[in-house]
Design brief:
There is one protein chain. Helices cover 24% and strands 24% of the residues. The chain is an alpha/beta fold. Helix 8 links the parallel strand 14 and strand 15. The chain is globular, with a radius of gyration of 21 Å.
Length: 400
Amino acid sequence: MATAGKVIKCKAAVAWEPNKPLVIEEIEVAPPEANEIRIKVSHTFHLHHFRLSMQPQGFPTVLGHEGAGIVESVGPGVSEYQQGDKVIPLFISQCRQCHFCKSPRSNQCSSIFSWISRHDAMAPPTSRFTCKGKELLQFVGTSTFSEYTVVNEMAVAKIDPMAPLDKVCLLGCGICTGYGAAVNTAKVEPGSTCAVFGLGAVGMAAVMGCKAAGAKRIIGIDINPEKFEKAKVFGATDFVNPKDHDKPISQVLIEMTKWGVDFSLECVGNVSRSALESCVQGYGVSVIVGWTDLRDIAIRPNQLISGRTWKGSTFGGFKGRDAVPQMVKVYMDKKLMLDEFITHHMTLDQINDAIELMKQSKCSVCLLDMDFLLLRHICDKDRVLNTGSFTVNPCRIGVY
């Protein structure tokens, strides 16, 4: 391509400092270096990780860790990918060589341990982004809130060339996180009873995973009753609103099921003991799903001594480079729902509007069309077209 080996100027949503709106800026994206891939992002979306709580050391940054696009160029040493490939960037790499990658018990990769634990930045030590002469951090190594991004080849999944990018981009984080937490981490069993705490996009995906695993009863828990009808689409059989009860939600679930649920998945992001305590003693399994570092939590030792298991799950236990292409195939075989999660379509320059919708729990997945952003800029310049946001399937099913 004509841009290969050159610096590309493009639009990106830049977070200059904490707790401030993102700013659409023109940034420079350097060519990929050794073992790197430059991707033209076609679609991205926003669920949870706005990271308002990040320390100042984590700024300025380009956020976004869920998206899909097409390989624009590759750096030296890259052989698995080539220009034109459809890909999904991954926030958890898979080098396929380290102790963790070789183990079937984990989807972690030691290649990111040196920087992912730096909670003040959540970014690799080097970046291919600059703006106004200042280096921009690349959030968890992906930064999909940019028309172009550069990602290490260990953190890219090559997918079916026929896959629709505006749908399979959802597999970059949230949907795999919830679905895999049920199937891979909890290992939900046929005929079991499950409880999913929080019916945002990740929670809905967890419900879908429970159903796929054969659970006979799936109880959705959320304080927003408007989510309940949508949860039925993904397989929920029962619903509980904690606000309707004057007793702990764990006690409500134990009374509903006699002994407690076999599996519980905590998808709220504000972790408490409720999901664990709702599990049956002796063999119940509770999983904390996704990333949260809001506060410490404490439990009584007898909650675990009695036989319950408390586990955590990142990216649903999926090894991204291997598993995401498989999940794309499952979707294309019509055995996985993705379209049903998308409630809004916007463009990158409307990112702050999308964030507000999610703060107000008025959408699940707000898909950002990067190509449409380019069209808007061209047309606005010529005063031919000035479009606003448009909405499809306007149901309200919460936020990750």
